[in-house]
Amino acid sequence: MNLWQNYIRPKNLSEAMDAFATAPRPLAPIAGGTDLLLDLDQGRHSPVQTLIDVTSIAELTLLEQRGDELFIGAAVPVNRIVHNPLTAHHAQALVEACDLIAGPQVRNVATLGGNVAHALPAADGTIALLALSAIAEIASATGTCRIPFSELFLGPGKSSIKHGEELIVGFYIPIQKTLRDSESLRVSSCFKRIMRPQGVALPIINVAIWLERESDTINDIHIAVGPGTSTPWRATEAEKVLIGKIFNDETFNAALEALLAQVGFRSSARRASADYRRHIGRGLFKAVLETAWGRTN
């Protein structure tokens, strides 16, 4: 039995939106297809009449610097992100996250947009983008718009993107400040995870941190933890503890307690118990923070 009846390959966003409006429904966009095709084959996805292949849309395949932002198209394969010098320089947490997604063959075709569109609260690319203050660009019949990254998520596996009407174009990441802003200002990021091998490794917990350092002080910091709640989540209370403070053991311990008081770990038979996550989260948080801090040197 065919998994779909119609296959459309638009050459630009306008053609894609026309296809969304006129193609036989139900329909679904496809880029890498590493999750979608398996879900269709194994009955975990509702039947699809039309697949709309977005990989020929130039805007969705770009990875480039645009002024003081780094743009990554939604259809860019994650392995391209791993090996690109722009992401290595400006978004190291995202590079490290993408390098841990599945295996090499999957990374060659799986896309960052697909990782985000699944709306899983512990998706590696998603957690890294959240720490990096990404902005999402969304296309619809009325044009394109930018929305804060966190607004893409409604719950586990539930995206705010209107199915069959809207398409993720890509993501904008602010580029670090230059030395002319402050001779002592440094910016870095880091991503690490602890995982359980289970066919394809599943994250028990992952942490991404972006920080801005001035001398011995944490000038600003973003901490994303997955899974921490039902959606991708920032440890805002821990951030408040760290901002404006000298980085030392006392400051770290206070931030750790704030993080654990705010986080909403739950037990999962496939991953780990909530108590185990809280236990190993202490060491992981410290390792990511120390690495990000050390990179500012």
Task: Report on this structure.
With about 300 residues, the chain is α+β, with helices and mostly antiparallel strands. The protein folds into three domains: about 5-55, Uridine Diphospho-n-acetylenolpyruvylglucosamine Reductase, domain 2; about 60-175, Uridine Diphospho-n-acetylenolpyruvylglucosamine Reductase, domain 3 (2-Layer Sandwich); about 185-295, CO dehydrogenase flavoprotein, C-terminal domain (Enolase-like, domain 1). The chain has eleven helices and 14 strands. It has a five-stranded antiparallel β-sheet with strand order 4-5-10-6-7. A hairpin with a 2-residue loop joins strand 4 and strand 5 (about 70-75). The longest helix is centred in the last third of the chain and has 22 residues, at about 275-295.
Question: TL;DR of this structure?
Answer:
This protein is α+β, with helices and mostly antiparallel strands. The protein folds into three domains: 6-53, Uridine Diphospho-n-acetylenolpyruvylglucosamine Reductase, domain 2 (2-Layer Sandwich); 60-174, Uridine Diphospho-n-acetylenolpyruvylglucosamine Reductase, domain 3 (2-Layer Sandwich), CATH 3.30.465; 185-295, 2-Layer Sandwich (Enolase-like, domain 1), CATH 3.30.390.50. The chain contains eleven helices and 14 strands.
